[in-house]
Amino acid sequence: MAQDTETASFTRWHALAGGCLFNIAIGSYYAWSVFVKPLQTEFPEWTRLQTTSIASVNMVMLAVLYNVAGTLIGRFGARNIALFGGLCFSSGMFLASFAHSLPMLYLTGGLLVGVGLGFGYLPPLYVGFKWYPESRGLVSGLAIGVFAAGAGIVGPLAGGLLGWKGLIYLMGWRQTFRILAGIYFLFTMVGALWLNDPPANFVAPKPKESAAAPKVSAINLTTSQMTKLPSFWLLWVAYMFGCFSGTMTVSQIKPFADQTFPPVAGVATLVAALAIPMGSAGSAVGRFLSGWMSDHLGRLLTVRAVLIASTIAAPLIFHLSGSAPLFFVMLFVLNYAYGTQLSVYTALAGDFYGPKFSAANYGILLLAWGTAGIFGPLIGGWVFDTYKTYQYAFYAAAAASTISLVLLSMAKPPTKEQLHAVGAA
Predict the structure, then answer these.
(1) What are phi and psi of 267, to 5 degrees?
(2) Nearest Cα to 81, choosing from 63, 65, 94?
(3) 293 with 140: CB under 8 angstroms?
(4) Contact assessment for residue 96 and residue 39, using Cβ atoms and an 8 Å cutoff
(5) Which end of the chain, N or C, is surrounded by fewer C-beta atoms within 10 Å?
(6) Which residues pair with residue 264 across a beta bridge?
């Protein structure tokens, strides 16, 4: 019996480790901004809006295809869905290295990489929730936190840090794409093979009781029932506005850092080189720590707190950028708030609308993040092309966080009357 318990414990962590390895690879798409300047150097006719909008394509594809993956994962299994996603992601990166036009870049680095993201994002969560149903916030925080950490590794690897000049400087962005594609292929294939479902006789440990812990709905709403609730759309719009500052910052941070702390002899300054790792660290810590905190303090309280921080940090990251330490602090806070929302909203969908259909229900909620993924990079790139500064983009980020906070202050779980009205009670 003890041996069976030890084996089950190992298998739980083994599956979680597979998800983490997989997410390190596909999460590196957050480092796209490190390639913006090299692309515009080779193709000076390409605008900032055009080059940074690859991130928008990636985010939209992830948000839309997450739902497609959700309908297929029960039939084909998490492992097969992940294998397909990893293959598309690494192939898209490899083929993008041969791009000589914007359409080719968008087709490979945008659409094909986006397909990989859309099919790859769900399996680690899907498997993790099955193995750890008693710690949904922790699982989503860990899986999505590691997703953010990938960019913190790829950013310095490609762009340079300290004495390391970076792969782009040493061999160009095309060869860098090919090397990264090989690494992504290895990580995603190995990670996917470890994503196995628990056996039929698996029984998860009971969660510890806490007065402030989130209360999971005993009623499982289908997606159709959930979307009939006005409270859901309040949550959806709040999520969209709340993520705007994060998607805008992620897509523009390296060019903004290079502008604020200009390169010396073609090599990025230490501050600019650390911009992506610092942002990734904030996002990863927010996803993991706030995911864990929300299990004990409550989901809504956790998100409201970080939205206040985001509202303050967004304009300050521009106005305090003359000081490297303050720039890093504001960048960390802003990304912490962004990462928190991606983690906590994942678990919130199960709390409000029941765990049975939470993957499909969160897929609809994730479209709000995808919408923010359209407008964040687009507005950030347009503001720079128009004014040659990111000042107003950060002002817009603060305004969006404020709107999200106001909306979220009115968010509540569905009442018995509302559940009855949609036929769920």
Answers:
(1) -110, 135
(2) 65
(3) no
(4) no
(5) N
(6) 267
